[in-house]
Design a protein that fits this description.
mainly alpha
């Protein structure tokens, strides 16, 4: 698959949330360039992981942050190290609105990241009587 084909396939899948989440994770694992889109499940494990033994810092990050709803699915650090929450709808909307930026950043790292493998993981070939390819089933 050529770079142009990879770009076309990614653009065609720009509304696939799981693909965008994987691209974010892979880019952040390489250079942290998409940290602003990284979220974590909003649960006790998050606080145990990031604030272990430092409850004062957890309180500060929460107080100065933006916890919209204690029942939100996701939490992340904002640019100031404070916490903000998002629900599923808000996060999906943010990813869709910024899909081009996420895809472009992943493409910038094509020497380091195997985008072909990621695209293949998000494509399922289903054999039926017409042998149609169903993408991202």
């Amino acid at each position: 698959m050529t770079k142009k084909e990879v770009k076309e396939k990614l653009k065609a899948k720009r509304d696939k949330i799981e693909l965008l989440r994987e691209l974010i994770s892979v880019c952040n694992g390489w250079d942290g360039s998409l940290e602003s889109y990284q979220v974590h499940e909003f649960d006790d494990e998050f606080f145990d992981t990031y604030f272990e033994g430092n409850p004062t810092e957890a309180v500060r990050a929460t107080f100065f942050g933006e916890i919209k709803n204690w029942n939100d699915e996701y939490i992340r650090f904002n640019g100031y190290g404070n916490l903000e929450t998002l629900n599923e709808w808000q996060y999906e909307k943010e990813l869709k609105e910024n899909a081009d930026e996420i895809i472009e950043r992943a493409q910038d790292l094509t020497e380091e990241i195997d985008l072909k493998e990621i695209i293949t993981r998000h494509t399922v070939i289903v054999s039926d009587k017409n042998k149609k390819e169903v993408k991202n089933a």
